[in-house]
Amino acid sequence: MARGKLIYEGKAKILYEGPEAGTLVQYFKDDATAFNAEKKEVIDGKGALNNRLSEYFMNGLMQIGVPTHFIKRLNMREQLIRQVEIIPLEVIVRNTAAGSISKRLGIEEGTQLPRPIVEFSYKDDALGDPLVPEEYIIAFGWASQQDLDDMIALALRVNDFMSGVMLGVGIKLVDFKIEIGRVWEGEFQRLIIADEISPDSCRLWDMETGEKLDKDVFRRDLGNLADAYTEVARRLGVLPSNAPQPGKPTLVN
């Protein structure tokens, strides 16, 4: 499928015009970044793994009635998606204390939280994606109160689904972030899951050993990032158990 003109290039993905109005082609890069792109590296095979894993999670969500922008995977690195108006917020769901919440509140990493906590951060790399309260979001017009209620409901449904899937393969879903976009159906707005869901956007720990299987491997220099992502894909059945190690992962259609 021929790509159209480049629309946007981010840290991990490139968006091109799609073949039909209202569609885009999303290309997954091998670039890994951390600390607002202060740390960068190219990880051979990472883009292909995230493309396949995001397809897996998006399809699973749609099967339980959670709307997403995903249409179909085109090839090893590209997928066809619905064009949406991205709300300029990251929606973060935390089940276990890790990362910034541990630093902010002095909670020991690995502490189970009393219930899933939903946070919002304003999408701006130059500002470090700062956390913002709901009052700010409404005051600055980034989203309405109804939008926020719908976003929280969507995020918690994603959390229920992802937690169950990961539990089934011996992985703890510590936390994750998603992006949500607006689509218009006539005069009516609908909110749907956009961007990606992959180990780039989740914290995933082995339930027995506590081994990290997410981008913290790169952030904290804990080993080979592609190996960690390959292990997640293997457990989920995205890779066969006897697949060769990445750089060039073998993906199951």
Description:
Mean pLDDT is 93; it is low at 243-253. Helix 1 runs parallel beside helix 6. The longest helix has 23 residues, at 145-167. Strands 8, 9, 10, 11, 12 and 13 form a 6-stranded antiparallel sheet that branches. A 5-stranded antiparallel sheet has the order 1-2-3-7-6. It has a two-stranded antiparallel ribbon with strand order 4-5. The protein is α+β, with helices and mostly antiparallel strands and 253 residues long. The radius of gyration is 18 Å and the shape is globular. A hairpin with a 5-residue loop joins strand 2 (13-17) and strand 3. It has helices at residues 46-63, 100-105, 134-139, 145-167, 216-219, 225-236; strands at 6-9, 13-17, 23-28, 31-34, 39-42, 70-73, 78-82, 85-86, 89-96, 112-122, 171-185, 188-194, 202-206. Helix content is 27%, strand content 32%.
As a percent range, the share of strand residues is 25-35%
Order of helices and strands: EEEEEHEEEEHEHHEEEHH
Task: Output the number of helix runs.
Answer: 6
Shape: globular
The total count of strands amounts to: 13
Query: How can the largest sheet be summarized?
Result: 6 strands, antiparallel
Q: What value does the average pLDDT take?
A: 93
Helix content: 25-40%
Global structural class: alpha+beta
